[in-house]
Structure formats: C-alpha cells, structure tokens
Design goal:
The complex is a heterodimer of chains A (about 290) and B (about 90).
Chain A: H1 3-18, E1 24-28, E2 37-40, E3 46-49, H2 55-64, E4 72-74, H3 80-83, H4 86-93, E5 97-100, H5 108-120, E6 123-126, E7 131-134, E8 137-142, E9 158-163, E10 166-170, H6 176-185, E11 195-197, H7 209-215, E12 219-222, H8 235-243, E13 247-250, H9 251-254, E14 257-261, E15 267-271
Parallel strand pairs in A: 3-4, 4-5, 5-6, 10-11, 11-12, 12-13
Antiparallel strand pairs in A: 1-2, 1-14, 2-3, 7-8, 8-9, 9-10, 14-15
Chain B: E1 4-12, E2 16-20, E3 26-30, E4 43-52, E5 55-62, H1 64-79, E6 89-90
The chains are: A alpha/beta (about 290), B alpha+beta (about 90).
C-alpha cells in the first residue's frame, strides 16, 4: 500500500471515530452523469435532492442506503440528468411533498415526473426562500428568480442544510448569474459551509470565485460520470477549489460519497469506492482532517 | 411520413445538445447539427433519409407550435397538482 493510500485510510478512520454518534447523513450518490443527494436527518426524515437520470440506478442507491420512505423530493431544475430518475422514485416512495423550481420544461421527462407526483398524491411546495425543518435539521431553500428567459441551470433551487454548527450547500447547476442572485437575495444563507456540492458537475461555468469565497468549503463533492463526454469536472473548477483549499471528492473516482455530521460541526467523509477509486484530489489543505480542525 | 420529434433538454459543455424523446431518455448530438437559432426547450422534428446505400441524411427542423403545446401541457399538469403549505414548515 502506498504512503498516500495509508494516509487516506487513516484519515477516514480518524474521522469515523469523531462522528460515530447518530447525526445528519448526506449521501452523494454515484449515479453517473447527474445528481442525486439523499439527506437523512437524525429525526428519521429523508429528503432526496434530485434523482439522477435513470430511475433504476437511483432506486438501487436508495435501497442500498436502507431507505424505506421519503418525506420530500426536491428537483433542483428540470434537466434530465437531475429529474430523469425521479418519476420512478416518486412512484415507488410516494413522498408527502414535492418541490421544484416552477419553471416548466417542455420535455417528456418533466411530464413523467409531474404525472408521477399526481399518481403518488404528493403535495407541491413552491420554492419561496422558506425553511423546512426535519427535526433538528433545517433546509434553507434558495429559490430561483423563475425568469423564463433564463435557462434551467440558472433557475435551480438551491438548498443549504443546517444542523447545529454544521452547514452544507447544494446549488444544482447554478451558474454565475444565479449565484449573484442568491448572494443578493439570501446573503446570510450564502455564507460559510463545511461541505459544498460542485455546481453543474464541476463545469467551468458553475461555481464562481465570488461564491466560493463566501462559502469557503472545506470539502467539495463533484457528481459526474466517469470519463464523461463533457469533460466534467473541468480543470478551471478544480483549480478554483484548490485555490480555496478544499478537498475534492468525485463520484466518478470515489463512488458514492457519504458525509456524516454532528451538530457540533464535526463531520466525517466516507467513501463507498468506485471505478478507478483513488484518494481525493489534493487542494491547498490537502489531507488535513476537517473533523479535527 | 411525419418526422420524429425530440425536445432539446439542454446544451452541455463540449458542444453537445441533449435531446429527449417520448420515453424521456436522452441522447447527445453535436450542437452544430441543430438549427443555429435552436434553444433549450425547443422541439425539433427529425427527418432521416437514405438517398443511397452509403449516404444517410439527418435533418432537424424547429417546431415552435410543438414547443408551445408541450409547455402548455406541462403547465396544465403542474397547475393541477395539490398544493402544500406555504412558508416555513416542519415535516
């Protein structure tokens, strides 16, 4: 075993012992090119943020995580790599609530999701900057401007997950003008987080330097397909994360990434392994232990 | 024969356009294959011709009426859904 691999194994072990009590769990599922993020509150509430592109893949991930019920499904925006798998998930789990960006798409995939929501009897929640409490966990909903002239990426619904002192941000496929919008509309929410999901799968047009300066994440998770044809994550984005000293995990390299957090702010990152698994891309703070900072 | 219809789900990095058909599955084509004025959400009709055994021509044409119809259908579906509570909530 190489020294680097030994160090990584030790890092995960140390973090695991620091966060062994029941806390918040956030699973960044490996669904190939797409996003599907499961939020599990210690109160037992489960929320799915996006559903990947293929329903069977997302259902298998949810099943492997032992999920038997979903309280809320959030569609960040209506592109197929985020909602293509949701119709199957919604029909299977029949969540109580469904929340989307209120910017209808013209694809059949979007209609399939709405038909599933109707069949499941789920109630529609409008994104309005509200707070959704899952026991001790709060979801801060970053609503989009809902401008029809803007494409779906810049009408993404963002979520900031708050559990005591721990914070995690999910920005869908937000690009620069949406980050500017959120910063203006929700300045207190767009602030320091421990963990951040790379916007638009680590595209150069996703996260901005200004947004990352506010969020200052210690860990960034990139959800993108292995050797995808779009080149995600782009070198520009990885460089940006490195400049901010963030550790980068990639679903294509590490498989499903699970963050387990305590309300003290301590957290651990667990890797399920994956195709071509290797240690995280080092940033300026490479191989430090966030849970012990 | 009427052309098959696809919707432009999105444009992606690297010059790709992602199209979806009736079953909701997507496939990528070079953006340059689509009309220059095509935008996200447009519906395109695909005509597939084989003028000779060694030549195949794929021709995409915008269908603005179909786009409007799909948007109206989606809006109608969404408007018919039962509404949950407004404002802050506890699950």
């Amino acid at each position: 075993m190489s020294p680097l691999r030994l160090l990584l194994a030790g890092w995960v072990l140390v973090c695991a012992s620091a966060a062994s009590a029941q806390g918040l769990q956030v699973h960044f599922f490996d669904v190939g090119q797409g996003d599907a993020v499961l939020i599990q509150s210690p109160s037992g509430h489960n929320v799915l943020y996006d559903g990947g592109e293929v329903g069977d893949v997302t259902l298998a991930q949810l099943s492997a995580a032992g999920i038997t019920s979903l309280d809320l499904v959030i569609a960040s925006h209506n592109h197929a790599d985020h909602i293509g798998g949701l119709a199957s998930v919604i029909r299977h789990y029949r969540p109580r609530f469904y929340l989307d960006n209120n910017v209808p798409a013209t694809t059949r995939a979007y209609q399939h999701v709405l038909e599933a929501v109707r069949a499941a009897g789920s109630e529609l929640l409008e994104a309005s900057g509200q707070r959704i409490a899952l026991g001790p966990v709060t979801l801060r909903i970053l609503s989009p401007p809902q401008r029809a002239a803007w494409e779906q990426n810049d009408n993404s619904v963002g979520v900031v997950v708050e559990y005591g002192a721990f914070r995690l941000s999910l920005g869908g496929d937000a690009e620069s003008r949406l980050w500017q919008w959120w910063t203006k509309e929700f300045p207190d929410a767009v602030s320091e987080v421990h963990v951040h999901k790379a916007s638009h799968h680590g595209s150069a047009n996703g996260d901005t330097a200004a947004a990352l300066a506010r969020l200052s994440p210690e860990v960034v998770v990139v959800s993108a397909g292995f050797q995808n044809q779009y080149g995600h994550p782009h070198a520009e984005a990885l460089h940006l994360y490195a400049e901010h000293g963030a550790l980068v995990y990639q679903s294509a390299l590490h498989g499903t990434v699970v963050v387990e957090a305590q309300d003290s702010g301590q957290y651990a990152v667990f890797l399920a392994g994956g195709e071509g698994a290797r240690p995280p891309t080092p940033g300026l703070r490479a191989l430090k232990t966030p849970a012990l900072d | 024969m009427s052309p098959k219809q696809y919707t432009i789900d999105r444009f992606e990095d690297g010059g790709w356009a992602l199209l979806t058909g009736d079953r909701g599955r997507t496939f990528a084509v070079p953006r340059g294959w689509l009309p220059a004025q095509a935008r996200e959400g447009d519906v395109v009709g695909l005509t597939d011709r084989d003028p000779s055994p060694t030549v195949r021509i794929l021709e995409f044409e915008l269908d603005p009426d179909a786009r409007a119809d799909q948007r109206a259908r989606a809006t109608q579906l969404r408007d018919a859904l039962p509404r949950g509570p407004k404002g802050d909530i506890a699950l």
